[in-house]
């Protein structure tokens, strides 16, 4: 009887040993799935704001000599705009600028001229050297000029007033250099040649109407990147 029990235990042990590898093979460990990290999307990446002050180096077409000291030729202007970096080298912006103005008033006749522009400019940055990035560019847009004259006839006391407005094609050539002060802020110093072949003006010396005005502007401003 004891021998039979021993044989039974041995048989049971052999069957258990044979069945155990099968059980181990049927066991599947739990799968662990790691979630991919969330990557933030930079909504404002590549866009920038800019603001500039300018000075027109060349003389105004209305910077004329008169016997009266009544003419004020303002050559200081400014502009604001928004732009975008397409690559590390190529960028473009849209800006609106006040270019210059002229005023005349002798107590009888008053006249003024104002010049504005709206331009789209493209730039090619030529690489960065010791923190400085030179660039060249060109642009196209519109030049807006307004001429207003008013006064009264000193003999007949008849008042008169006249306003002339022009919107003409203009193009620009740009060159300059920028320096990155912080991760987002750069200072920009440049030159712009602005020409409008179809804009008319009065040649005071000849008393004729002429076409074509241009401006040689020195500009200084700031660009702020919206990263």
Briefly say what this structure is.
With 227 residues, this protein is mainly β.
What does this structure look like?
The protein is mostly beta strands. The protein has one domain: Beta Barrel (Porin). It has one helix spanning 2-26; strands at 47-56, 71-74, 76-85, 90-105, 109-125, 132-152, 159-180, 185-203, 208-225. The chain has an eight-stranded antiparallel barrel with strand order 1-3-4-5-6-7-8-9. The model has no long low-confidence stretch (mean pLDDT 84).
In the sheet with the most strands, the strands line up as 1-3-4-5-6-7-8-9
Largest β sheet strand count, sense and barrel closure: 8 strands, antiparallel, barrel
Strand content: over 45%
Mean pLDDT score: 84
What is the second-level CATH architecture? Beta Barrel
Weakly predicted, low-confidence segments: none
- Sketch the topology as an H/E string, one letter per element: HEEEEEEEEE
Regarding quaternary structure, what we see is single chain
The first-to-last residue Cα distance is 89 Å
Q: List the total number of helices.
A: 1
Please report the first level of CATH classification, the CATH class.
Mainly Beta
Number of domains: 1
What's the CATH topology label? Porin
What gyration radius follows from the Cα positions, in whole Å?
Answer: 38 Å
Q: Percent of residues in helical segments?
A: 10-25%
How does the overall form come out from the CA principal axes?
elongated
For the secondary structure, the number of strands is 9
Q: Which structural class is indicated by helix and strand composition?
A: mainly beta
């Amino acid at each position: 009887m004891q021998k039979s029990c021993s044989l039974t235990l041995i048989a049971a042990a052999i069957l258990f040993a044979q069945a155990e590898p099968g059980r181990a093979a049927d066991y599947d460990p739990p799968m662990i799935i790691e979630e991919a990290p969330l990557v933030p999307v930079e909504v404002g990446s590549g866009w920038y704001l800019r603001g500039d002050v300018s000075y027109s180096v060349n003389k105004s077409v209305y910077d004329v000599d008169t016997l009266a000291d009544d003419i004020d030729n303002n050559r200081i202007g400014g502009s604001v705009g928004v732009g975008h970096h397409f690559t590390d080298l190529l960028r473009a912006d849209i800006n609106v600028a006040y270019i210059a103005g002229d005023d005349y008033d002798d107590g009888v006749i008053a006249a003024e001229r104002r010049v504005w522009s709206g331009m789209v400019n493209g730039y090619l940055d030529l690489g960065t050297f010791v923190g400085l990035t030179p660039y060249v560019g060109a642009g196209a847009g519109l030049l807006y000029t307004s001429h207003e004259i008013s006064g009264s006839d000193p003999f007949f006391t008849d008042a008169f007033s006249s306003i002339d407005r022009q919107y003409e094609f203009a193009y620009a050539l740009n060159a300059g250099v920028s320096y990155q002060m912080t991760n987002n802020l750069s200072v920009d110093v440049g030159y712009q040649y602005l020409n409008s072949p179809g804009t008319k003006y009065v040649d005071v010396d000849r008393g004729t109407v002429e076409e074509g005005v241009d401006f040689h502007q020195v500009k200084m401003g700031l660009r702020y990147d919206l990263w």
